[in-house]
């Protein structure tokens, strides 16, 4: 492509084209279904590289995608025929233990972030998989084990440095560009490229966490108990339940817990859950917080084909539970699973108007995670996931979480925010990106 050599000269990082070694590895992301070919992959080493890469794309009217951790389910980080701005090399984290804050570059993932903050016994709400980028997760809201105690990831965001479509680097915070700061907390990557995030941290040392496995034959009773237990548990407990298939092919109920308080108290809190089943295995124990953060990776290996659907529900009644268990009994692929995790606590306590995040009062998120290897199974597994979403509609409350939707596009994205917030987001999008340069996301059209 014309001008690539000039871009290479201008960058401290690397600009790859399809003819270069490393190009195919550079365009590979978490979801193995995504097979797009950017014209240029700009592997940025700093803000100057990001600015020059964006200018290169905009002056040539090329599509722009922004990759952080590469965990976007629809593969928004990789564009077809445009410029993929890859922030992965920008992963420095600077912790100030005296103020309990951290500033992290935009390409940082949660494993890298936790590695630095945990050296000081500190953490903030982060994703459930360490290789998830802080950018995509925080900008959509940010669910994680610590959210019931400390709020969503975006609730802990203090400020952000944002490169806008015009090529201007600005700061967004409660006092600087507050409208943009509001939109960044839930509105996704629509408003610019966030080159750094500043977070509030909390004291998080050893936690009581791990996996409890129960027989699938007890699924009805387990999920019925989970519905009440999870909601009435103290805020220190982050917990989920999953219907999953073990490596030996056995279907099971999987509980995953993280109690971020006194571990003796945590033993008391978790005892009802642990004694309610006939355990296949009970691996709940005191462990570092970062160890809990690594567990989900065993269920979500990188490079598998992925297709997900989710609903919010306010009650897991017997009919809803029967629908879940019956549908999972016909699961088409062994790594495919259904996850239920719960909100409440600080998530619900943050006033709805404070951020672009909606549906904070929801009780549970229920997600069908289609995951498989063979492209020949694409139709079979995606149909199963879509059927799950259809069958769960009678029990669903409003809205959805954009990061868990495989195809939340067009007018459908408004349902993730509600009409009033969506219209406010449209107005802010029009102010900061009137040409919709940043459209490869859960797009809010200006």
Structure description:
There is one protein chain. Strand 5 (93-96) and strand 6 form a beta hairpin. The mean pLDDT is 95. This protein folds into 3 domains: 4-86, Uridine Diphospho-n-acetylenolpyruvylglucosamine Reductase, domain 2 (2-Layer Sandwich), CATH 3.30.43; 93-203 and 422-432, Uridine Diphospho-n-acetylenolpyruvylglucosamine Reductase, domain 3; 206-404, Vanillyl-alcohol Oxidase, Chain A, domain 3 (3-Layer(aba) Sandwich), CATH 3.40.462.20. The longest helix is centred in the last third of the chain and has 15 residues, at 378-392. It has 14 helices and 19 strands. With 446 residues, it is of the alpha+beta class. The strands form 4 sheets. Strands 12, 13, 14, 15, 16, 17, 18 and 19 form an 8-stranded antiparallel sheet that branches. It has a 5-stranded antiparallel sheet with strand order 5-6-10-8-9.
